[in-house]
Amino acid sequence: MFDLGYNASLVALGAALLGIACGITGTFLFLRKRALVSDAISHATLPGVALAFIVMVALGGEGRNLFGLMAGSAVTAWAGLLAVTWLTTRTRLAEDAAIGAVLSVFFGAGIVLLTVIQTMSAGKQAGLEGFLLGSTAGMLRADAIIIAAGGAVVLALVALLHRPMTLAAFDPDYAVATGMNLRRIDLATMGLVMAVVVIGLKIVGLILIVAMLIIPPVTARFWTERSHRVALIAGALGGLAGGLGAVISASAPALPTGPIIVLTSFAFFAASLILAPGRGMIAAAAQHLDYRRRVHLRQGLLALAQAHPVREALTLRILRREGLIRADGVATEAGRARAARALVDERRWQLLRADPSTGDLADRYDGLTPIETVLTPDQIATLDRRLGPVPVSGGVT
Amino acid sequence: MSGAEFVPLSLPPILIGTLAAIACALPGNFLVLRRQALIGDAISHVALPGIVVAFLLTGVVSTWPMMIGAAGAALVAVAMIEGIRRLGGIEPGAAMGVVFTTLFAGGVLLLEQSDTSNVHLDVQHALYGNLESLIWLDAFGWESLLDPVALDGLPPELIRMAVVCLGVCAFLWLFWRPLKISTFDEGFARTIGMRTGPLGLALVVVAAIAAVAAFDAVGSIIVIAMFICPPASARLMTDSLERQIAWSVLFATVSAVLGYVLAGYGPLWLGAEDAVSAAGMIATVSGVILALTALFGPRRGRAGQPQGA
Amino acid sequence: MALTLAGTDDAATAGDAPLSVRGLTVGYGGSPVVFSIDMDVTPGAMTAIIGPNGAGKSTLLKAALGIVPRLSGQVAVFGRPLARARDRIAYVPQRASVDWDFPTTVIDVVLMGLYSRLGLLRRVKARHRAQAMECLSRVGMEAFADRQIGRLSGGQQQRVFLARALAQDADLYLLDEPFAGVDAATEAAIIRVLKALKDEGRTVVCVHHDLSTVTEYFDHVFLLNRTRIAAGPVATAFTAETLQQAYGGRLAEAQLDQLALA
After folding, report:
1. Residue B256 clears pLDDT 90, i.e. is over it
2. How far, CA to CA in Å, does B105 sit from each of A257, A263, B110, B121?
3. How many CB atoms sit inside 10 A of residue A205's CB?
4. In this complex, do C74 and A362 lie within 8 Å of one another by their Cβ atoms?
5. B3-296 has which CATH code?
6. Subunits touching A (CB < 8 Å, at least 3 pairs)?
7. What is the pLDDT of residue C3?
8. Do residue A156 and residue A291 come from a single domain?
9. Averaged pLDDT, A146-169
10. How far lies C25's CA from each of A356, C13, C69, C157, C252, in Å?
11. C-alpha–C-alpha distance, residues A39 and A55, integer Å
12. Are A94 and A88 in contact (CB under 8 A)?
């Protein structure tokens, strides 16, 4: 167990708190299918940082006061956010074009200002470029406190607003119908994202903060179907990636903090993509193959029962594998029995669906569900009486 | 300023910037119409890891390997995005966000890890280029345009950009109809047998090539501005696709020329000494044009039913 | 009671019917949307695909055309695989999927129907424009040729898409709810065009939602509710009995009486 230095511990703590705040806040954007708005917001911070620096120096200060820079970044980020909303509502442009335009133009303006600063007083600008990729070296205790406090405030606001934000994400039309002001909720959500972006500028920089807002919610989505849980799991994953990433980064030289945190987060994502039960790739593939097998099996059995030729190679393969037909395509004992049962089941369903008095039970038919799961034995017996004997190829059941 | 100063120092950067802007704006028209505008965002961010990998593999900071590296990274990114989208059932924006931020982080890490102290390969350059330094020292004035000896010394970036721009134009001209049809109604295009998948991929590849060629001039992040702002502005000016393309070329040219001029001479006019970033100014000017068209463009409002909320 | 199940005893796909489907099943996730469908479209007829909501009617068409993936089944168009017969079919989808702000005019949309003949590079000549205008006048939209498509009403847009299909000069026309949400004048115009197509010997298949117009517009029906319920000429297949089967007994007696049934 190695000993983290003071700086490294601060960074790890700050990164973990930031990760939790990003994960939870980013979930609401993700659920609203606007994940990349955070990219526009983060790039729009750059001109604000530069302007704040210029203003502070002009007022005689050092120019690197974190709080001042954060305030500046918030101003232009808010402007960027409003610009995205304005472009999508007032013009025929789609949201992705608005995001890309705001992102690149604000960033370009920020670059112009950075070069202005470069010429103003050579050397002083070095600190600002750290906001692009994050720079945790020489992190002060005051910085960590700002990050922790900011993160806590954001989380408190999320707790307050999570119900309207969730409803707006899930069913915007319904939200409007119940009288919610959708635009205000969207602004609030984006405002919270902006707050965490501003807070996280120092640790991971504006280019990588987007990762912390998007990757944890996407990962969390693999593990649950309920939006509250997505947010909580995303927060946990974000915090874990932040803390773990910071620790790994401190353990060896030439491991910059921001990128390592992002890569850690991605590792969680990749593992979830592949392994998550239900929505992960392996599980989904297994489900699909099983489903396809059942469809072909049912169709094959029905064809056997009526002496129809089975045409598809896959159906034949499956029937053979289950021991229901021989290599030459003739049905085995087991095959004939199951085919007969399938045919009876199908006929029962047909009768049920044709009868006006059965109500909604008939809707359960989907070609695969056996009727025994829907009707009681008595009800099936009634059907059978009306059905009479079912002629099956090779005999009568 | 005189020809003796303008031709060697300003003409090549202006030409390169303009050609870069046009080469990006042209495919950008279709990307914007297909709601794939942010693929430019993805391509730009992953250029960095592509360039770093190329450097690590070849050991030199030379143009061709870096361009191939960036193009290869773009293809890898697109494949990953598509894969994650399908296999994970994730919406396209989020899939893009996951992929390009991770690849970018990987690129920065690789950069740190490899020993680049001897070589000038810094992140800032990759991000916002250095248009101002692409000068033509062999020229002496306007007459140099006709002088074969001087022309031999033209900055290679200019030749490269011109060739790529020409290639982009050729692609659009050749595939104009399929692009228009499949962008408008993909279902219809598929039912008449058009291979919309490969066509879409080809469009992205062409965009990636334009972006990669432009990186040297304007860096990666600004390329997004060129993909999106001129076409978006053009979109708000007209209802005809042909005219939209024309408008986008006009806006791209104006952004590039005006941006460069303002960056180079603006500070001087304001009494300052040094120039500011040309690439940043070009992006800013294209943004101003977009804002103006959004406020006053004749076709800025929505016509038919709005697409989704 | 003799019930026929899906799965006729035709050997291979029936000769060169305009559209022939065997054992088609489509589904995502839990349940099949359509299960084990067999269908043979009668050449030169006007066939309606009908069934309750969620019966899978649109899905059937889309799966047959390869627009959605299928779990099982075979499809043949005029006796050949779909990929080799695409120039003989024209598909008019439900209106939802296009971007109405797209910079294109009415005549441009119709010209898209000529694409397979124009290919990549051949220039659009006067005769192509004339062809497109002719298709537009058949649907009564020639006055709108230069208008941007977003500036049309729903019925007008539907007519433009029909004109595009006409420009394709196909032998089999597949339309997905062409009369949904259009005004009476548009409906009359569309059915006129479709009947003209049938008189020219072409085959028309429509997913249709309005039972009361089936006997008036169509001569064949295909009843569907996840599986095939009945298929054939209107006189034999569109009866009170088959309808009750298809609609799961949800049609009231009064509704049935209103339909001009055999």
Report:
1. yes
2. 10, 7, 9, 16
3. 23
4. no
5. 1.10.3470.10
6. B, C
7. 31
8. no
9. 85
10. 26, 16, 10, 32, 30
11. 26
12. yes
Asked if the Cβ–Cβ distance from A363 to C249 is below 8 Å, we say: no
Nearest CA distance, B173 vs chain C (angstrom)? 9
The closest of A186, C99, C260, A17 to B35, measured between CA atoms, is: C99
Q: What is the pLDDT of residues B61-94, one digit of tens each?
A: 677 787 788 888 988 999 999 888 888 888 888 9
The residue among C15, C60, C29, C45 whose CA lies nearest residue C173 is C45
Quick one: which of A260, A208, A190 has its CA closest to A43?
A208
Q: C48: distance to nearest CA of chain A, Å? A: 21
**Residues 6+ positions from B259 with CB-CB distance below 8 Å:** B17, B278, B279, B281, B282, B283, B284, B285, B286
The verdict on a CB contact (< 8 Å) between B108 and A259 is: yes
| CA nearest to A30, candidates A178, A199, A216, A156 | A216
Q: Which has more confidence, B223 or C94?
A: B223
Tokens of C14: 């029936």
Q: Do the chains contact at B185 and C97, CB–CB below 8 Å?
A: yes
What ranges do the domains of chain B cover? 3-296
Q: What is the mean pLDDT of residues C98-120?
A: 82
Nearest to C82 by CA among C26, C18, C35, C27: C18
Whose tokens are 């006067």? That residue is: C126
Q: Between the CA of residue B150 and those of A82, B146, B155, B159, B160, what are the distances in Å?
A: 50, 8, 11, 14, 17
Question: Average pLDDT for residues A57-74, to the nearest whole number?
Answer: 82
Dihedral-angle region of residue B169 (phi above 0 means left; psi in -120 to 50 means alpha; beta otherwise)? alpha
Question: Cα-atom radius of gyration of chain B, to the nearest Å?
Answer: 20
* Distance from C-alpha of A46 to C-alpha of C146, rounded to nearest angstrom: 46
B98 touches chain A (CB under 8 A): yes
Q: Please give the residue that has the higher pLDDT: either A148 or B164.
A: B164
Say if CB C142 and CB C133 are below 8 A apart: yes
Q: Does the residue A271 lie in any domain?
A: no
C28, C87, C101, C118: best mutation site toward chain B, by most B Cβ within 10 Å? C101
Is residue C4 scored above 60 in pLDDT? no
The ipTM assigned to this model is: 0.91
| DSSP 3-state of A261 | helix
The answer, yes or no, to whether residue B309 has pLDDT greater than 60, is no
* Per-residue pLDDT tens over the stretch A320-347: 888 888 888 788 888 889 988 999 998 8
Write out the residue range of the structural domain in which residue A333 sits: 282-396
In this structure, the answer to whether residues A49 and A195 fall within a common structural domain is: yes
CA B69 to the chain's CA centroid: 16
Q: Are C104 and B180 in contact (CB under 8 A)?
A: yes
Q: What's this model's pTM, rounded to 2 decimal places?
A: 0.83
| Most confident of the following: A106-110, A178-182, C122-126 | A106-110
Q: How confident is the model at residue B30 (pLDDT cuts 50, 70, 90)?
A: very high
Q: Say if residue A222 is in the same domain as residue A296.
A: no
- Tell me, yes or no, if B263 comes closer than 8 A to chain A by beta carbon: yes
The reply to whether residue B225 touches residue A269, judged by beta carbons under 8 angstroms, is: no
Distance from CA of A360 to the nearest CA of B (A): 32
> Token digits for A224?
């649950």
- Do A192 and A334 fall within a single domain? no
CB distance from A268 to chain B under 8 Å? no
What's the CATH number where A173 sits? 1.10.3470.10
**Are residue A191 and residue A304 in the same domain, yes or no?**
no
Q: Are B270 and B67 in contact (CB under 8 A)?
A: no
Residue C2 contacts A where some CB pair is shorter than 8 Å: no
Tell me if B304 and C150 make a contact (CB, 8 A cut-off). Answer: yes
- Bridge partners, C50 (sequence order): C223
> Got the DSSP string for A278-315?
TTSHHHHHHHHHHHHHHHHHHHHHHHHHTTPPP--HHH
pLDDT for the residue B126: 67
Identify whether the C-beta of residue A57 lies closer than 8 Å to the C-beta of residue A76: no
